[in-house]
Specification:
Blueprint lengths: L3 H19 L11 E3 L4 E2 L2 E2 H9 L8 E3 L4 H8 L6 E3 L8 H9 L3 E4 L13 H4 E2 L3 H7 L1
Helix pairs in contact: 1-6
């Protein structure tokens, strides 16, 4: 529901694209991945275990999970420079995360789902919305 596998697959695709360009003299990017929110189950495993198994091949740094932050702490974390909030939901109605990002002027990208797209100005849709697929999300990232 929250799109963790979609997000991790897209990040992996971006990492592969970056690694493929390293030998060609192109600029490379270094980024950290943080998942924020309640720890749940992904594909039948506790999300933290699933994430560790799924990303162990990435080497260092592995994704960080922040599961105990309250709203204010989470917003302080997300509004720091250089952060991008990714909302890869596969099922949504009207997520508070999008509203909070809009309220705090925090950069975000989100799945183009009913309930999310209605919150985004039509002129910004191509910049911040992606179809819930690895190809679309990795291209936007």
């Amino acid at each position: 529901r929250k799109g963790v596998p979609l997000f991790i697959d897209a990040v992996e695709r971006v990492r592969e694209m970056i690694n493929a360009t390293r030998g060609e003299g192109m600029i490379t990017a270094n980024f950290d991945v943080t998942l924020m929110g309640r720890v749940d189950y992904v594909e039948g495993s506790l999300a933290t275990s699933w994430l560790e198994q799924r990303t162990i091949s990435w080497g260092s740094p592995l994704p960080t999970v922040i599961s105990s932050a309250g709203r204010d702490d989470a917003m302080r974390y997300l509004t720091k420079d250089g952060r991008l909030v990714v909302i890869p939901s596969t099922v949504e109605n009207s997520p508070f995360t999008v509203l909070e990002c809009l309220e705090m002027a925090t950069p975000f990208i989100a799945s183009n789902l009913t309930g999310i797209r209605e919150l985004v100005h039509p002129e910004d849709m191509d910049k911040v919305l992606f179809e819930p697929s690895v190809e679309s999300l990795s291209a936007l990232l």
